[in-house]
Amino acid sequence: MKRLFQYINNEVLVNAARLNVANLSLRIVTGILVSKFIAVYIGPQGMALIGNLRNFMSALQSLSISGLYKGVVKFVSKVKDDVAELTKTLSTVFYLGFFSSVFLALLCYYNAEFINDFIFSSSYRYTYIIKTLAIVLPFYALNMFTFSIMNGFSKHKYLLIINILGQILGLLVTLLLIYQDNIDGALLAIVITPALNLLITIVGIAFRRSLVSHIKITQVSFSVINKLSPYMIMALVSAIALPIVMIIIRNYLIDETGIKAAGYWTAMTRVSDYYLMFFNSLMALYILPRFSEINTKIAFRKEVFSFYKTIMPPFLILLLVIYLSRSLLITVLFTEDFRPVEDLFGFQILGDIARVLSMVIVYQFLAKKMFAHFLILEVFLFIMLYFSSVYLIDEFGLKGAVMGHCLSYVMYFGIIVLLFSSSLFGVIDEEGTADH
Fold it and tell me: What are phi and psi of 420, to 5 degrees?
């Protein structure tokens, strides 16, 4: 436990103060302002449509960079002093991202009507939004590619400045478009703001112009792709499957309980995203690098339980405060039209607690490259999430969506505990191995 506190004080909070806390705080503030504008100018119906577009964009953006972001950060930081390997890595990632994003852009553009029907249903005609998304997609991919390089070179100060400026620009554009064009403006803002960030990023990386000379199509290497492929597969499964499942569940809610109910559920998931942001950041900063260093089961056990003892109590207190002040939160974040969201907090928060407890252990899969275990568990989670939500929506209506979320993550956590039961609860010998 002492080691955890020391690490957080010396490393995590220092890094977070420079980059994560400031950036995430701004993201939450801008998210709250955008949610308020959506609630006031558009209402629950618009919230549902916006939720589907956000989920679709999330999956598409992950595909456009082939799930490479984290892998690139890791490999660039490893080979940044080796010119030959750096050239291979940058060239491979750039052209892989370029061709995949252009291919997806063309696919989106020429199938805009089909995608519109999937996201918005045939009742709404927003094909021009899909076509706009297709046009700006390669710019988003280029922006993320640049971000991953800067992250790999540990240019945290520049990343922080770029993120802050990007958030402010995105907020201003979004609020202006919502004010002028309501739902059309909101949908257009969601699509174009990630690409607008590229303008700021280009200015920010002017000092790294020499990197461009490293990008050569002749240096594309399949060995680099092979090394990155596990990270690509893991990132893509989570980044694509979950948003698609969310769209399907939201569409089912629209069909069974109406578009307003789907908007209430979307509002609840947005609140959940806000309070999970800081926790996810802490996990990435501390848990993943720490688990990468651990080689014994006893050390793994100590880290898991010390994290539970130190981080979970304040997190649970925060969630209790959120639950007790849910009525006030709805007034602040949304409008009176969103009052039914108040009944959704309980199951959503319980599900998020199980989700967080699971994530602490699941990071061991990532740290130790247990890719097959990770993929099987993720696929199980998404299947369970879909079927439990559909069944419970049929039985309980809108509340069934959050009940399905809760049930899925509780079962997910239970299975993870069973898989790691020997490491977490078994008798461990002096060498740090567990008896089965």
Answer: -105, 20
Alpha carbons 166 and 160: distance in angstroms, whole number: 10
Residue where the block lists tokens 């005609």: 125
User: Taking a C-beta distance cutoff of 8 angstroms, is the pair 129, 53 a contact?
Assistant: yes
> Is residue 69's pLDDT more than 70?
no
Dump pLDDT digits (tens) for 380-425: 999 999 999 999 999 999 999 999 999 999 999 999 888 877 666 6
Sequence-distant (6+) residues with CB within 8 A of 88 are 219, 220, 221, 223, 224
* Residue position matching structure tokens 């199509």: 217
Rounded Cα–Cα distance for residues 134 and 58 (Å): 13
Cα angle 408, 414, 416; round to 5 = 105
Residue type, 222: F
In Å, how far are 245, 257, 347, 383 from 251, measured between CA atoms?
Answer: 10, 10, 20, 16
Amino acid letter, residue 27: R
- 24-46, pLDDT tens digit by residue? 778 888 888 999 999 999 999 99
Contacts of 35 (CB under 8 A, 6+ apart): 267, 270, 333, 334
- HSE-up of residue 198 (Cα within 13 Å, Cβ side): 14
Q: Which two tokens stand for residue 281?
A: 């950041």
d(CA 230, CA 135): 29
Nearest to 398 by CA among 210, 258, 190: 258
Q: What is the pTM of this model?
A: 0.85
Strand partners, 434: 428
Helix (H) or strand (E) holding 209: none
Tokens of 205: 């990386």
* Residue 129: C-alpha distances to residues 61, 113, 120, 124, 176 (Å): 15, 10, 11, 11, 17
pLDDT in tens, 212-240: 555 666 667 677 777 777 777 777 787 78
**Is residue 9's pLDDT more than 60?**
no
Q: Are 341 and 323 in contact (CB under 8 A)?
A: no
Measured distance CA(161)–CA(206) in Å, rounded: 14
